[in-house]
């Protein structure tokens, strides 16, 4: 319900403004001075399309895949090493020649290594997520700036996002109102690639 209200809110506001402007003077038999309402110069941008087709977003998705692949390979090699140590301890448990004290020390060492690997995993994942969030913020900030620039060039005073959660919210809009291609072109020129923060 809230999502519907957020989507409909701009349309409701424009309707109320129009109704007040039209009906208020008539309600007072013209005794109220009419208020001049600026004409709306409207445009819309399909942000879902921008985020799908932009070079920076494609590069970002490739970057994520590459980083997670590297991360996964590192973890697999460490897991294999720990698995080999675990198998060695299991063999030693069957072979009673190893002292209980030595066996316990090896188990404690393995537990410590597993704990360290878990800490590394969490830290690395947190670091990657933070880096990815910074990249997304950079892309979204650039998109906002570009939308503002295009709106100023076209003298638009209201720009809607044509999609919310990949669902279309603009039922009809003439192609002259759609600024998506301009936004995409400028974004691809201004931010063709992204990089992990240092």
> Can you tell me the residue ranges where pLDDT is under 50 for at least 5 consecutive residues?
none
Structural class: mainly alpha
Task: Summarize model confidence as the mean pLDDT.
Answer: 80
The proportion of residues in beta strands is 5-15%
Strand line-up of the largest beta sheet: 1-2
Describe the 3D structure.
- The strands form 2 sheets. This protein has a two-stranded parallel ribbon. A two-stranded antiparallel ribbon has the order 3-4.
- It has 2 domains: 1-37, no CATH class; 38-190, no CATH class.
- With 198 residues, the chain is mostly helical.
- It is built from 5 helices and 4 strands.
- Helix 2 packs parallel to helix 5, helix 3 packs antiparallel against helix 4 (100-153) and helix 4 crosses helix 5 (180-190).
- Strand 3 and strand 4 form a beta hairpin.
Keywords:
198 residues, mainly alpha, two-stranded antiparallel sheet, rod-shaped
Compact summary:
With 198 residues, this protein is mainly alpha-helical. The protein has helices at residues 2-27, 47-53, 55-94, 100-153, 180-190; strands at residues 42-45, 158-161, 163-164, 167-168.
SSE topology:
Blueprint lengths: L1 H26 L14 E4 L1 H7 L1 H40 L5 H54 L4 E4 L1 E2 L2 E2 L11 H11 L8
Parallel strand pairs: 1-2
Antiparallel strand pairs: 3-4
Helix pairs in contact: 2-5, 3-4, 4-5
């Amino acid at each position: 319900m809230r999502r519907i209200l957020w989507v409909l809110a701009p349309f409701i506001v424009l309707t109320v403004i129009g109704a007040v402007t039209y009906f208020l003077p008539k309600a007072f038999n013209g005794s109220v001075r009419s208020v001049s309402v600026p004409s709306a110069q409207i445009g819309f941008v399909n942000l879902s399309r921008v985020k799908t087709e932009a070079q920076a977003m494609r590069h970002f998705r490739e970057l994520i895949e590459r980083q997670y692949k590297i991360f996964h390979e590192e973890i697999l090699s460490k897991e294999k090493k720990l698995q080999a140590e675990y198998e060695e301890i299991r063999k030693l448990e069957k072979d009673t020649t190893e002292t209980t004290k030595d066996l316990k020390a090896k188990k404690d060492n393995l537990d410590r290594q597993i704990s360290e690997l878990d800490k590394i995993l969490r830290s690395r994942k947190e670091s990657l997520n933070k880096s990815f969030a910074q990249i997304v913020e950079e892309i979204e900030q650039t998109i906002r700036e570009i939308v503002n620039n295009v709106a100023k060039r076209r003298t638009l005073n209201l720009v809607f996002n044509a999609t919310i959660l990949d669902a279309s919210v603009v039922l009809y809009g003439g192609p002259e109102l759609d600024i998506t291609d301009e936004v995409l072109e400028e974004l691809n020129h201004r931010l063709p690639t992204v990089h992990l923060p240092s």
